[in-house]
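User: Could you write out the 3D structure of this protein bound to fe (ii) ion? I've included everything you need below.
Assistant: Certainly. Input first, then the structure.
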Amino acid sequence: MPDPDDRPRPAPTARSLKDGGTVEPVREILWGENAGVRKYETAEELPADMRRLIVKLMVVQADTEFASIQQHRPWLDRAPTLEDRWIESRIIADEARHGLQACRILRDFGEEGQRYIDELLTKREGEHKLDAFNLPFDRWSDVGAFTCFVDRVGVYQLRAFQECSYGPLARAMPLMLSEEQLHLNFGASVLRRMVQDGPRYLGDRDEAQASVRKWYPRALDMFGHSQSETSRRAIAWGLKRWTNEEARDRYIAEVTKLVASLGLELPPPEFDRRVL
Ligand SMILES: [Fe+2]
Ligand SMILES: [Fe+2]
């Protein structure tokens, strides 16, 4: 799979290989208005606007993690094979850990952060912030297409935070990214098996195709509005690497190739969209 992060970036000047090949964390802001200045390491030192945005981003992040646990849960003992059930249980454990990690970042924001955490823990199915996380997984193809398309957007969002200007957030990325990679590879494999093996596995090509049309538009919506001023500010603050539109375009290029290799077809990017 092509790495969406092939754009030239400033050299990580503070990075050095220590004895035994360990990589020292990057201490400086790598892009945006404050490139070269030391990263923010505590919630207290963040400028007010940036603080507000980080809190908002972490609330959405944690909300998606907890929501996907609710979506996957019914398939723990309904997935077609034992291996699939084991991977479902692993995905649920990973998403719980990601939610915890986002909440730990929120905890650093004191009472305000804790209020959000308390609220997040009360959210039921259908009450989440993004549409993709309010749709139940009625069929096994929903699990395949969701992990293939929606988790893949999650990877783009996490990559956008990699080595960002808020140290605690930047350091949470590597493990989350490696776990998400398993989820989206699993999703593609579920769809591939449906197309190739049909009812001998579960479902068939038509069901897989319908799931692509159901989830791809919701995945594209997750990148947010194209003319978002917030996404531009996030880049200027060294928090995110790409605008919503840039990230969405890269994603479309990647999944276009992937879906063709599965023997399936993508609808046009404008199809069934709610966030433009
Ligand atoms: Fe996750
Ligand atoms: Fe995931």
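The helical segments are 48-72, 82-107, 110-120, 140-161, 167-197, 205-221, 229-236, 244-261.
User: Perfect, thank you.
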